[in-house]
Amino acid sequence: MSDLTTLQQLAEKRRSIYALSNQLPVANDEIVKIVEHAILHTPSSFNSQSTRIVVLFGDDHRKLWDMTEDTLREIVGDEEKFKSTKERVNGFRNGAGTVLFFEDQAVVRGMQEAAPLYADNFPIWASQTSAIHQYVIWTALASIDVGANLQHYNPVIDQKVASAWDIDKDWTLNAQLVFGTIEQPAGEKAFKPVEERMKVFGA
Hints:
It contains 7 helices and 5 strands; from the N terminus they run H-E-H-E-H-H-E-H-H-E-H-E. By secondary structure, it is of the alpha+beta class. Strands 1, 2, 3, 4 and 5 form a 5-stranded antiparallel β-sheet that branches. Helix 2 (28-41) runs antiparallel to helix 6 and helix 3 packs antiparallel against helix 4 (79-93). The radius of gyration is 19 Å and the shape is globular. The two termini are 27 Å apart.
């Protein structure tokens, strides 16, 4: 089997898995190693290396989703309307951990100062850098049969997260990747025709 075949198979295997449990098929250290490798080897614009990551396991993971539930309940107000949100958050809490993705705005500002011609683009490129890290880690987790789903409860939880885990003031939260053991696989995925989404010239 070629490396390309393996890579493409992993791309297909990586799905949004919502039915998760907290009993991982691997040790926590294996998850940490995956994240460490991604931080070292995932590309970034101008090699800025602006992505910052926090990994939460166990009680810290549950603390995150407790805080998120409390914050969202305050926003929604009505307990009856909050039921569906509560169920969704419960699903995240049932996982084994969460990877928090940040971008260091001090690095972004430094790049803007160093290359003012591209200043407006560096925040965009930083978001793209974060997205690549998210995909790499998500796909790596899929390779070891750890399910995950990506959430975006920023900016409403940003202040509580920063306070709870002493996050640097220049780190901006971008996404939360919940992971755990797969209790139920993702369903069938519908695909729009490739010819509507891609053009090739000069081949």
